[in-house]
Amino acid sequence: MADLLSLDQIREAAARIRGVARVTPLLEARDLVAWGGPDAAPLLLKCENLQVGGAFKIRGAYNMASSLPEAARRAGLLTYSSGNHGLALALTARRLGVPVVIVMPTTTPAVKVEGARALGAEVLFEGTTTLERKARGEAEAARRGMTIVPPFDHIRTAAGQGTIGLEILEQCPDVTRVYVPIGGGGLISGVAAAIKRSRPSIEVVGVEPTGVARMTASLAAGHPVTIPITPGIADGLLAVRPGDITFRHVQAFVDRIVTIDDNAIIGALQWLFRTAKIVAEPSGAITVAAALAERASGRLEPGGPAVAVISGGNVEPKAFSDYLSCDLAN
Asked: I need a surface site. Which of 37, 62, 117, 216 has the fewest CB within 10 A?
């Protein structure tokens, strides 16, 4: 596993981002709402929706960008992102005092576009898939002489995300299971590496949308595959192909993957807001949807504490209102 993240790399990332990224709270659902019966395994919520920029992405973006040579930083930073990574890189660039360009999909929620522009980023739009954004980003970076900070498929990006895993272990030493969203795979790569390198007995569960189950398909094939995109509400998890680096990490460190549909995500959004008073975006609530489903099936009873990583809270107010008013019974 020499080509995979080490604990030292993740610890170095934790030191690098200290004072930039927040140590986000780990809240026990039982303290907030009725959660299962008396023997139900506790569910804790790792609230990256309260992170700088509203999502976990600042960890990886700052770790990679701040470790670049000075000349590369000064030439400017560029990324291709569905929104949250772009916002995180805009925050990073402002802190480092360097220019930044973000290539976003044409479907990016306005809250993410406006947030990046407010931080001084130049925003370009290209297509609806990661591959389309990546091609445009690479062309722009070559033309402008800028350095690309990938949204997920880079060892230093994943190392930054892995700091979440270190925090979970510190905040809940007896955790037995961790649910992590899967898009391109950077978040789960880092978190799973941090946890499995520290405590191999902890179960790491990846969660991806039913309509874009690219990691499930890739694991079945034995290599990263590209799948057709199916529109869904989890806009941050719509990468149609996992990264090569992230795929190897999932193979090595993730115990299993579950898929969740849009209705279950909406149910989790409603549960989080109405009973826990937490605002999450669909991509962030997908892990809670998985925990709710497994609680209903009895998989969480009994057992030790489980943690659901709520990866972000950047959601359009109108869309969020619609999710809350949605009648899932019809």
From this structure: 37
